[in-house]
Design brief:
With 221 residues, this protein is of the alpha/beta class. Helices cover 43% and strands 19% of the residues. Helix 1 packs parallel to helix 2 and helix 3 runs parallel beside helix 4.
């Protein structure tokens, strides 16, 4: 990633929307190069169909796994492999998931911090999260999935300190739902950020395809 990339998540409240395939087909010619979805609730065959059409149109694909047990994280990673995803986001870090990603050429970006609920809530000390990230990077992960705006503390301070303190790609995920937050992301300049629910709540306009282009153009301006 040579710029701050938008990852369009076909998700609402941390779950893939029912009409993800149809929505992608409507917006396949939009300016976003990176697209993603969650590990729930679509059946695996529908996820594979969705990822296949995304690849056909030249998109990079991320699956974000919202899971907190080792067993669920491994299951999510296997789904990402089956879908041919380029990036595995989320999961509580575990060596087994890291190994699955290495063996299958997926870029692994695990969560940091203390996580609970779905949609996820993030808690924890900023410096501890940075130390956590550094330990994962030493084990060969590609980057970090930071649920910045889901943080129970000062989200702006967390994102600023974390992105500047971690020498690796950081994706700011979750609750990017205003132009004010886009301005903060532009200033901090992480590798990527996700928008899912914000598009379906029409935070950037009425039509989802136009919203995607509006955000892409805003980030480039």
């Amino acid at each position: 990633m040579n710029k701050t990339e938008l990852i369009v998540m076909l998700t609402y409240n941390d779950k893939t929307i029912d009409k993800a395939y149809e929505t992608f087909m409507r917006c396949k010619d939009s300016k976003a190069d990176y697209w993603g979805f969650k590990e729930e609730p679509l059946p695996l065959e529908e996820m594979k169909k969705l990822s296949s059409i995304m690849k056909f149109y030249g998109k990079k694909i991320a699956m974000e796994v919202v899971a907190y047990t080792k067993e669920e994280c491994i299951e999510g990673a296997k789904k990402a492999v089956a879908c041919g995803c380029d990036i595995l986001m989320g999961t509580v870090y575990c060596d087994e998931v890291n190994e699955i990603c290495k063996q299958n050429g997926m870029k692994y970006c695990p969560f940091v911090g203390k996580l609970r609920e779905r949609p996820t809530v993030l808690e924890g000390d900023v410096q501890e999260m940075i130390s956590q990230a550094e330990s994962y990077l030493e084990k060969g992960v590609y980057g970090i999935d930071l649920l910045g705006y889901r943080y129970t503390g000062d989200a702006k301070e967390l994102i600023d300190d974390f992105v500047s303190g971690v020498n690796a790609p950081v994706c700011v995920a979750g609750s990017v739902n205003s132009f004010e937050r886009l301005d903060e992301i532009k200033r901090i300049n992480p590798a990527a950020f996700t928008i899912g629910s914000g598009f379906f709540d029409k935070c950037f306009g009425d039509d989802i395809c136009q919203q995607i282009n509006t955000v892409c153009e805003y980030m480039e301006s």
